[in-house]
Amino acid sequence: MARIVMKFGGTSMADLDRIRAAARRIAAQVAAGDQVAVVVSAMAGVTNQLVGWCDALMELHDPREYDSVVATGEQVTSGLLAIALQAIGIESRSFHGWQIPLHTDGAHGRARIGRIEPDALLASMEQGVVPVVAGFQGLGPEGRITTLGRGGSDTSAVALAAALKADRCDIYTDVDGVYTTDPRIVAKARKLDKITYEEMLELASVGAKVLQTRSVELAMKERVRVQVLSSFTDGPAPREGALPGTLVVDEDEIVEKEIVAGIAYSRDEARLTVRRVPDRPGIAASVFGPLAEANVNVDMIVQSTGADGSTDMTFTVGKSDLARAQVLLGEMRETIRYEELLCDPDVAKISIVGVGMRSHAGVASTMFRTLSERQINIQVISTSEIKVSVLIANDYTELAVRALHSAYDLDV
Amino acid sequence: MARIVMKFGGTSMADLDRIRAAARRIAAQVAAGDQVAVVVSAMAGVTNQLVGWCDALMELHDPREYDSVVATGEQVTSGLLAIALQAIGIESRSFHGWQIPLHTDGAHGRARIGRIEPDALLASMEQGVVPVVAGFQGLGPEGRITTLGRGGSDTSAVALAAALKADRCDIYTDVDGVYTTDPRIVAKARKLDKITYEEMLELASVGAKVLQTRSVELAMKERVRVQVLSSFTDGPAPREGALPGTLVVDEDEIVEKEIVAGIAYSRDEARLTVRRVPDRPGIAASVFGPLAEANVNVDMIVQSTGADGSTDMTFTVGKSDLARAQVLLGEMRETIRYEELLCDPDVAKISIVGVGMRSHAGVASTMFRTLSERQINIQVISTSEIKVSVLIANDYTELAVRALHSAYDLDV
C-alpha cells in the first residue's frame, strides 16, 4: 500500500464530466489498495473571473478581501468532487485550508506555507474517507483566508505530500508529462520517464509551464517524488513501472542520466543594450541598482569592454517591464553618460538543461556549433551548472530548437 | 447614532454595478452617523447554479458537501462589497460564518442559528470598520460550514441584529416594501408604512414573498424592528419618519391599526377530497397519519358529515406533493374504505390578514358576501385569529383579490 496525493488542475475540474472522470481515477487508485488524499484547483476560468471582479471594483484592492473572494473557486470544486466520489461509492469529504488547518504567513495573495497539521487528514484516510483539499488556500495568522499565488495548488499538493509523508504526489494536468521540448515545435519530441528536480526547476524557470517553479523547489527541499500525468488519457490507474507520466525525482533515482534532458524556449524577454558607457568601477551597480529598486527583473547580463575605455552592457528584462526600463534608463543618461540605448523585443531565449552536463565536457560547444551551422547569431550567453541559455533573434526560435533537439540525440 | 444592520438580497448583489450601488447606500448611512453592519446574499442566480451542480452529481448528495459548495456565493459577494466600500473610502472587512463565529446546529442545509459571538463584529464597528457578513451560512458543531436553507440570509440578518442589539434591521430587496396586495394584480394596491410581526408572518406564510417566514418569526421573538426597502430606488439613506419602506414592528408601535392589512393569494396548493368515508372515530388520523409520515404537508382541512353516516374530507396539499398524495391515498382505499378520490390542482387560496380582526366583528362575513356577489364559490374556509383564508377556483383569483381590496377600503 502506498500513500499518494493526487492533484487535479483547472482543466481537470473544468465541468461536471471532468469532475466525474477525476472521481473515477481516484476510485481506481483506491481500488488498487492505495491510501489517497486529493488536492484540487478551481474550475478553469473561474479564478480569472473572480480576480477580474476584484480588479474592476478597485485597482489596489485589499489583498485580504481578494483572497477571501478568489479562494471560493477551490471550495466549490473540493465539495463537488467529494460528492462525485460519494456518487460512485467512495467515502470522501472536503477540507478547506482553515479546516485542516494549513497555516501560512500573512502575505495575502502570495502567502508562504508554514505548519500543516496532518492529524485531521490522516484520521480521515485511516477511516477510509478520501480527503479532498481545496488547493491554493490557507489560514493566515489573523484567522483570515490566504492564497498562495497563481498556480499555488501545485505547491499545496507538494506541501501536503510532505506533511503526510506520502510516497508520491501525482499532478494531473492537460499534458501527459514533461517533454524533451515543446511538441508543437518539434514533432519528434518525446516524453521523459524521469527528470531530476534540478532539471525540472531550470525548465520551469525558462518557460516549460508544466509545474509551478515554487512547487518544484518545495518538492526538491522536502524530497517529495512528483509525477506529472494527464487526466485526459483514459486507462487504468497509474502504477509505477508503467510510468504513464513523468516522474520528478532525486538525481540518485536516475541511473541513465541524459546529458541534455530538455530544450526550452521563452519569448517573454526583451534585450536592452547600453552603448559606450565609460568603464569605471561601480558602473554595473549604477545601471542595475535603479532597475532593481523599480522592481524590474534583469535576467541575462553581458558586459564587453572595448579598447577605448568604454564598455557595452547588454541585458534582458521581462517584455512587460521593457517600457518602464526604457524610461528609467533614459532618465539615467546624464548620470551614467552612455552614448546610446538600444532595445530589441524580438528575441528568444533558448536553453538546454541536463544534470549530465556536470560530468560531460563539450556540451555548450555543441550548442554553439549547431547554431553557427544554421547561421544563427548568438546575442547573449548565460550558463549555470546544468543549463546553457542563449539569446537569439525570435525568427530563428523553431529552427534553433529543432536543430538542438537533433544535435543532442533527443529525437524519437 | 443608531446601530443598523443592512441586508442586501441577491438582486441587490447581482453585478458589480449593483454592488457599487449598495456600497453607496451603506456609505450614506455611515455618513448619517450610524453604526452599520452589513449582511449579503449571493449574486442572483449563483446559488441556483451551485445547487444544480450538486444535484446533477448525485441525487441524494451529502448535505455537508452541499453546504460547503453553496455557501461560496455569499463569500464572494461579502468580499466584493468590502472592496467596493474601500473603493469609496469606507473601511470595511468581510466575515464568513466561521470567522464570527455564528454557531448553528448540525442540520446541514437547514441549520438553525445558535449562539452568535458578537465581539469581533462589535470591535470592528467600534474601530469604524464596516463588517460585511456572508449571510445564509454558519459554523456547525463539527467545525464544518452549514447553511440555513433558502432565503436564509434574511434570518442571518435578523439574528445578527438581535445579537448586536441593533436598533433596526433594514432588508434591501427588489420591492420597496410590503403592499396591501400584489400590485401586479391590483393597480390600486398601496405600500404599508407599518405592519405587525403577526400580520407579516401570516402574509409570508400565504405567499407574499417579501420576507422569509423564519426571519419574521425570529424578529418577533427577539423584538427586532425590521424594515423592508428597495435597493433599486435612489435617494438619501432611509431615515425613520420618512419611511421609504415598510417597518415590521410590534403591535404596540402601530396606533391606527388596519382591520385588514393585506390580501394575499397562493396558487401553490391543490385540493383533494376523499368522498364518502365511513364516519367513525379515528378516521381523520387514519387519513392524515400516513400523509404526515410521507412528509406531505396538509394545509386546510374541512370535514362534512352527511346524513347516511358517511363523511367527506376535503383538504389541500402543496402542488408538488399532489402526485405523491394521490398514490398514497390510492393505496389506502381498502383500509379506509372511501368511495371516491377527487382532486383539483386548479385552485387558489385567498387570505385576508389583519390584527384589527381581533376586535372587529363581521370581517369574515364581508369576505364571504363580497365573493358571493361575484358568483365565486368558496370550496374550503380556514381561519386563524388574524387571518381568514378561502379556497376558490384558480380562474377567479384576480377578480377575488380586486374585489376584496375594494371591499376592505384598501384602494389608494
Automatic annotation (TrEMBL), chains A, B:
GO BP term, pick one: homoserine biosynthetic process
Pfam families in UniProt: AA_kinase, ACT, ACT_9
Record's catalysed reaction(s): L-aspartate + ATP = 4-phospho-L-aspartate + ADP
CDD domains: AAK_AKii-LysC-BS (cd04261), ACT_AK-LysC-DapG-like_2 (cd04923), ACT_AKii-LysC-BS-like_1 (cd04913)
UniProt pathway annotation: Amino-acid biosynthesis; L-threonine biosynthesis; L-threonine from L-aspartate: step 1/5; Amino-acid biosynthesis; L-methionine biosynthesis via de novo pathway; L-homoserine from L-aspartate: step 1/3; Amino-acid biosynthesis; L-lysine biosynthesis via DAP pathway; (S)-tetrahydrodipicolinate from L-aspartate: step 1/4
Domain ACT as annotated: residue spans: 272-355
Gene Ontology cellular component annotations, sorted alphabetically: cytosol
Residues that, per the record, bind substrate: 47, 74
SUPFAM superfamilies: ACT-like (SSF55021), Carbamate kinase-like (SSF53633)
List of residues binding ATP: 7-10, 173-174, 179, 184, 209-210
Family the UniProt entry places it in: Belongs to the aspartokinase family.
PANTHER family: ASPARTATE KINASE, ASPARTOKINASE
Name this protein carries in UniProt: Aspartokinase
